[in-house]
Amino acid sequence: MLDLLDRLGAVTLGALARLGLATLFFGAVFARTWRGLKRGALLVREIHFSGVRSLAIILVSGLFVGMVLAVQGYEVLQRFGSADALGSLVALSLVRELGPVVTALLFAGRAGSAVTAEIGLMRATEQLAAMDMMAVDPISRVVVPRFMGALVSLPILAVIFSSAGVIGAYLVGVELIGIDAGAFWSQMRASVDFRLDVLNGLFKALVFGLAVGLISVFEGYHAAPTAEGVSSATTRTVVISSLSVLTLDFILTVLMFRGLN
Hints:
By secondary structure, the chain is mainly alpha-helical. The protein has helices at about 1-30, 35, 40-50, 55-75, 85-125, 125-135, 140-175, 180-190, 195-220, 225-260. The protein is about 85% helix and about 0% strand. Helix 5 (about 85-125) packs parallel to helix 9 (about 195-220). The model has no long low-confidence stretch (mean pLDDT about 85). It has one domain.
């Protein structure tokens, strides 16, 4: 029993210590954000690395998610004689929920893990220590541009994902199944509200970008300077980012829908 309590206490203290370390690190990143914004070339490079290089998987995934939504939605809606509302169903599902969430999960698996591995390798090869010796702040030079790249890229990718999903739903619903194109688009325009749906979805994507970006740079910056340490940090980034995105999605959804009532 005492051994169990010792282990439980050690785990709790370790978790609290890591939480405190993360809080101090996040504060340091936010304090240097303005300084990092002045490095325009680095910021553009990181947006290209995190955003543009993730574009292919976002487009393909969005297209097929929209197609699946169209097939499944049509099967349900036609039972109630509401097949013309397929456009509304797909658009609201993508803009409110699936677009930001699936984009964030894909982004964490592709770009977040890559950022963690890159910074972790810099730690393992002592590049970060060399910057400290040359009086170059590694947080401003390395961490902040990568964090800002994720923060800027993810909302844009979420918009692209949702747009690709709508196109996929149109191809299946109108071109394949035969739903009237006018009804498809008109129902969509009538049901999707810019402020309540589109802006809320963008806000979700922004929060997810903030979370994934911070977790990615934190895990990379504090990775153990070994191959195994970098590998473990990369795995933690994907797992913690995915759980954080799903948790934040629930919290934001509850707050948004409560605000509508």
